[in-house]
Amino acid sequence: MNLMKHYRWYFVISLLVIVPGLISLGFNGVPLGVDFTGGSLLDVSFSSNQVVTTQEVEAALLPYESFRFESVRSLGNNQFSLRFDQMELSQKDAALATLSNIAPASEQQFATVGPTFSSELLTKTLTAVLIAAICIVLYVWRQFSDLQFGVSALLAMLHDTVVLVGSYSMLSLVLPLQVDTLFVTAVLTTLSFSVHDTIVVFDRIRELQRSHTRAPMHELVGVAVLETLGRSLNNSLTIIIMLLSLVLLGGESIFGFALALLIGAITGTYSSTFTAAPLLIEWERWKKRPTAAGRGRSMVDKTR
């Protein structure tokens, strides 16, 4: 049984997930949190036995333009996270007083992020992801002494990042999701998880190359994938089950973070076996493809 016999179908499956995500990113973007856009966050708790809804909170704050109210997100148990444009302490106190007209409200947390800090954080975030990717490529390249292993690992990580961000963009249309520093943590965790499984597969391919020097790459990769697939699935399923429990039962405050990790764990498991490994086959096929000059010489030789 060779799982790599029709390896290009795995690229088609990836495209079926990536393309809708890219379309969603193009039209809707991603909902950036206050960490990246600047503004104020106010977490409030209503101490009354009366159940307060997000609609009631919006109706209480929207008429007052001085609050510069933007959005509200339920945290469960009569707790809400309110997002404002830049807000002074006096405005925060006035907003709490207004919310107390619904039911007794108390402040749980208040934070303000300035535009300078938010733009600096975005720059540092992108820099951190880029540095991590470069270091991983260089490490894989050095360990396997072959550039194709490093590039294949990089493309697999890029695949995971695009799938995660695109999926988050699509899900944000129906779920209260925001891209914040926790999401960045989930992206970096996904990269490390993906490359860990990828290295396991690559290491088995390298061992088979040493013992079967004349075997074609697609056969070696097929055997390596089949031998490591059980280990990868067993390892990943334990993580996926735990993350699924957090998504379903963890509460609103960590829902977005747990969901991002869950998507990352699933796509990381897939890409290490069905993206990174097929890329090695495709790389090897293109390396052995005769150049135009070579084909020309061969044709000349045949005519002599």
Structure overview:
By secondary structure, the protein is an alpha+beta fold. The chain has two domains: 8-32 and 117-287, Multidrug efflux transporter AcrB transmembrane domain (Multidrug efflux transporter AcrB transmembrane fold), CATH 1.20.1640; 39-113, Alpha-Beta Plaits, CATH 3.30.70. The longest helix is centred in the C-terminal third of the chain and has 33 residues, at 217-249. A four-stranded antiparallel beta sheet has the order 2-3-1-4. The chain has eleven helices and four strands; from the N terminus they run H-H-E-H-E-E-H-E-H-H-H-H-H-H-H. Helix content is 68%, strand content 10%. Strand 2 (69-76) and strand 3 form a beta hairpin. The two termini are 44 Å apart.
Sum up the structure in keywords.
304 residues; 68% helix; 2 domains; elongated; 11 helices; four-stranded antiparallel β-sheet; Alpha-Beta Plaits
